[in-house]
Design brief:
The complex is a heterodimer of chains A (about 200) and B (about 130). Chain A has about 200 residues and is mostly helical. In chain A, about 65% of the residues lie in helices and about 0% in strands. Among the domains of chain A are: about 15-95, NADH-ubiquinone/plastoquinone oxidoreductase chain 6, subunit NuoJ (Four Helix Bundle (Hemerythrin (Met), subunit A)); about 140-175. The N and C termini of chain A lie far apart (about 65 Å). Chain B has a domain at about 5-90: Helix Hairpins (Orthogonal Bundle). The longest helix of chain B is centred in the middle third of the chain and has 31 residues, at about 60-90. Chain B is elongated and about 55 Å long. Classes of the chains: A mainly alpha (about 200), B mainly alpha (about 130). Chains A and B meet through helix 1, helix 2, helix 3, helix 4 and helix 5 of A and helix 1, helix 2 and helix 3 of B. Chain A: It is a multi-pass membrane protein. Chain A: It is found in: Cell membrane.
Chain lengths: ~200, ~130
């Protein structure tokens, strides 16, 4: 345990945590770039698993272990599975699909590069001499503190969020339910939004 | 740990997600890029929570809220994409132009000059 509150850590003396963070961050960033550039749709979902798992490891390095496991459970466990099911249900091509990107790819690249340059410049300039004391442990688990504050100070947003989640669930069910009473009674003429666009 | 590492990583992840949202054609890939952007925000929240040594860990509580909202968003978004795919037969957001301006593909609107174009005569006859 290092109590390094007095001496100033330098740029050129990275600690082990920093090196680990940097390597995992590079892997995460690479996986994210492959996710948005690959032409195989299922591979994009699988690389998204790598990116989200890398972010979970970064949470662990930032001593937020509860968030890390929530990340693994919800994102890697359910969101990616949901995305894979969505890819299957929309009959996405399994192999190489050349039209995965739209024509305005270069405009998007320019916008993203400009945003990246601006954000990195501002952030690096603002937090140039700021250090996180990762070893500032009070001996108490962060999970315990997070839980007690969640149910003591954040209990009203927590309950509102559960209502929101219920509403989203009901909305998803209503949206994806096949309406048997609307579609069959129009056998000859297609309805207006059908024949217009396809 | 230097605070620049998580902050710069979060910025770069956000911009990768931004590129994906703008450049992808399939709607599900757009949703994946939105997830990347939300994760960048979460990484910022956790990093600043650790930096400030918040006694109540408000950053981590807000991260939990963001994760929950992202889960709700992906559920609703996938339901909408499936509904669109069932109705229109495609999930490509380029082809969903049902609400587009119908005069857009001509790209030559021009100011209507009185008595100059012969094409206006047909229209005048049609309206007369």
């Amino acid at each position: 345990m290092i109590h390094s509150a007095t001496h100033h850590p330098g740029f050129l003396s990275p600690t082990g945590v920093e090196i680990t963070f940097l390597l995992v961050g590079l892997a995460t960033l690479g996986a994210a770039v492959v996710t948005v550039t690959t032409r195989q749709l299922v591979h994009a979902a699988l690389w998204l698993v790598v990116a989200l798992g890398g972010i979970a490891v970064e949470y662990l390095l930032l001593t937020a272990e509860f968030i890390a496991w929530v990340q693994v459970l919800i994102y890697v466990g359910s969101v990616v599975v949901l995305l894979l099911f969505g890819l299957m249900l929309t009959k996405a091509p399994i192999g190489h699909s050349p039209d995965a990107d739209s024509e305005n790819r270069w405009v998007a690249l320019a916008v993203a590069l400009a945003a990246a340059g601006t954000l990195v410049w501002v952030v690096a300039d603002a937090f140039r001499s700021t250090w996180i004391d990762v070893h500032h442990g009070t001996g108490q688990s962060a999970t315990k503190v997070t839980g007690s504050s969640l149910f003591r100070f954040w209990v009203l947003p927590f309950e509102a969020l559960s209502v929101l989640l219920l509403a989203a669930l009901v909305g998803a069910i209503v949206l994806s339910r096949r309406r048997a009473d609307v579609l069959p009674p129009a056998p000859d003429g297609s309805t207006a939004p059908h024949g217009k666009d396809r | 740990m230097h605070l620049v590492y998580p902050a710069v990583l979060a910025s770069l992840l956000f911009c990768v997600g931004l590129y994906g949202v703008l450049a992808r054609r399939n709607a599900i890939l757009v949703l994946m890029s939105v997830e990347l952007m939300l994760n960048a925000v979460n990484l910022n929240l956790v990093a600043f929570d650790t930096w400030l040594h918040d006694r109540l860990h408000s950053g981590q509580a807000l991260t939990l809220f963001t994760i929950t909202i992202a889960a709700a968003e992906i559920g609703i978004g996938l339901a909408i994409v499936l509904l669109v795919h069932r109705n229109r037969g495609t999930a490509d957001i380029d082809r969903l132009t049902g609400l587009a301006d119908p005069g857009q593909p001509l790209a030559l609107p021009g100011p209507p000059e009185p008595g100059a174009a012969s094409g206006h005569d047909e229209k005048a006859e049609a309206t007369a």
